[in-house]
Specification:
Layout lengths: L4 E2 L7 E13 L2 E6 L1 E2 L16 E3 L2 E3 L1 E8 L13 E2 L12 E10 H6 L7 E6 L1 H25 L18 H5 E7 L2 E7 L2 H5 L4 H6 L1 H18 L3 E4 L11 E6 L2 E6 L15 E7 L2 E7 L5
Parallel strand pairs: 1-4
Antiparallel strand pairs: 2-3, 2-10, 3-9, 5-6, 5-10, 7-8, 7-9, 11-12, 12-17, 13-14, 14-15, 16-17
Helix pairs in contact: 2-6
The structure holds zinc ion.
Length: 295
């Protein structure tokens, strides 16, 4: 058995698939693993973008998770019990010793009544409006990270070594502890610890200057989204769930690339009006990013 192939990186919201396995998840729920899906599952190692909602064979998909199973022997009559899902997965994402699947969580009784079993053909439909809004939140989140890096660039006294696609020291990737994507929004938490000070970041100045940095970031976001630019999720031709994917976007300062497992808009002009608010926290700060809803 092979990994679930995913079509969400290219923006798909519908598809047909063959059921590879139906897993008992307990609590009256089952997990349907298919050979290919447009559904974006929540990642078990970096759960930034929530799972898509929608339907499988007309039944509501209650959640969508990553599952892993020891590579299955086709001769095994009942491999379903071997799946582990989400936080219970004991291995690194993409461990080649395992088969990786997208697990669509359904009401077990409803799935049973609908006759969903191994080998069934099913129709998958993602809630496209919610997906669109999550993609907007996610693209805005990446642009906000680049704007933060640029605004904070003068606060580094040493060459940090790690730079983003626009040449700024990559504060985002060095300091981020939590990222949550929401429909038309994102919330990112940054910790400014001792190691960042040692690497040359003036963390006290940064916290004192948060309002100015926020204004600078908002000016950058306005300029970038006004200019527009093509954006894509690059799979490198690998359509497996656990492939390493990269968000690439053309900004006025050049092309940027950020490793990313989520979904995105195809032009950064689609998130025009994105604004950030910076707030101090215990040990750092948080960035609230919002995109005006489409009308
Ligand atoms: Zn991302």
């Amino acid at each position: 058995m092979t990994d679930t192939r995913v079509t969400f990186p290219a923006g798909a919201v519908e598809g047909r698939a063959r059921v590879l396995d139906v897993v008992d998840l307990g609590g009256g729920r089952c997990g349907v693993v298919v050979d290919q899906t447009p559904f974006h599952p929540v990642d078990h190692t970096w759960p930034d973008q929530p799972a898509d909602s929608g339907t499988l064979a007309g039944l509501p998909v209650l959640d969508c998770l990553v599952g892993a199973s020891p590579a299955i022997d086709e001769a095994d009559a009942d491999p379903g019990h071997r799946w582990v899902v989400a936080g219970d997965i004991p291995a690194r994402r993409g461990d080649p010793a395992l088969t990786w699947g997208v697990v669509h969580v359904l009401d077990a009784e409803a799935a049973d009544r609908a006759g969903i079993t191994r080998g069934s053909e099913v129709e998958l439909v993602v809630d496209g409006d919610r997906r669109r809004r999550l993609s907007r939140g996610h693209s805005a989140c990446h642009l906000a990270a680049l704007a933060l890096n640029r605004a904070a660039a003068p606060l580094w006294s040493k060459d940090v070594g790690r730079r983003d696609g626009l040449g700024s020291p990559d504060l985002d990737s060095l300091a981020i502890v939590v990222s949550r994507i929401e429909p038309d929004a994102a919330l990112d938490e940054y910790r400014l610890g001792k190691s960042l000070r040692k690497r040359g970041l003036a963390t006290t100045d940064l916290l004192e200057r948060l309002p100015q940095l926020q204004d600078e970031a908002n000016e950058l976001l306005s300029a970038w989204t006004a200019a527009g630019g093509h954006a894509v999720v690059d799979t490198g031709g690998d359509d497996r769930l656990v492939a390493r994917r990269t968000w690439r976007a053309d900004l006025p300062g050049g092309q940027v690339a950020i490793p990313c497992g989520g979904t995105h808009v195809t032009d950064i002009a689609d998130v025009a009006g994105t604004r950030v608010v910076y707030e101090p926290t215990d040990g750092g700060f948080r960035v609230l990013t919002t995109v005006p809803p489409e009308v």
